[in-house]
User: What shape does this take?
Amino acid sequence: MMIGTCRLCETPNSDLQDSHIIPKWAYRRLRGDGPQPDPVVMTDGVATQKSGQVSEYLLCAVCEDRFGKVERRVSRIVYQVDGTAPFLTLLGAAHGAMDGGEVAHLPGSLPMADLTYFGASVIWRASVSTVVPGCSLGAKYTEEFRQYLFGVADFPVRAASIVWFYDVARSEKRDYGAVMTTPVSERFGAYHRHDVLICGTNFRLFVGGRIPESAELMCGHRGKRPLIALVPHEHLEDWPGRFVSNFRPVGRFAERLLKDKASEIPT
Assistant: This one.
């Protein structure tokens, strides 16, 4: 452990924990079978296999447990190791179509408060960390989300949270359910969008003065007619796909690709 100020409760001289930006259970679901089970990690155009997990000394034990309780509940909703999708049984009937997928009003059986809190906590941790350079909420929203996550303030007024479930279980490509990204931030005119993809579930935050009306409408926390989307797995190519479309395999991953390619050559 390390002594320092907890980034969530701001208690000084705390025994800081080695806090995972993304929970350990998500990493476990990325591991495959066989002699090389480590996940493929893509960074700066390079793809390799490694077992390392993104973490940093950020939180005291009490705040770590605060996040952990929600994380465990969310872990039982998203895609499981066997490819099953518990959220499918919770969504209920589709309300309509959107971008090739389906949308449904939020049923009471789906713990949207947990999903909203979880997605915000992962993006906030990435924002205050030094190990995820591609994500930043900015000073104003970092503080507003800290207060919300610590339970002393409501969800930020100029923010919206959307959750997308990718329809992977209905296809044969269950490996998409084991796709994960570190949080990333992008600017779109007068607002910023922050995304993280974990086990086939896209957690998305909009912040700024001019959030799209559709985001406010679908916001699971305070939307007027909150909706949740189930979109085809092919849509994974929309935003994470462009970050990994061109990569150079190195190390064990490059060796594995060569072996797989050699096995496909008829003798």
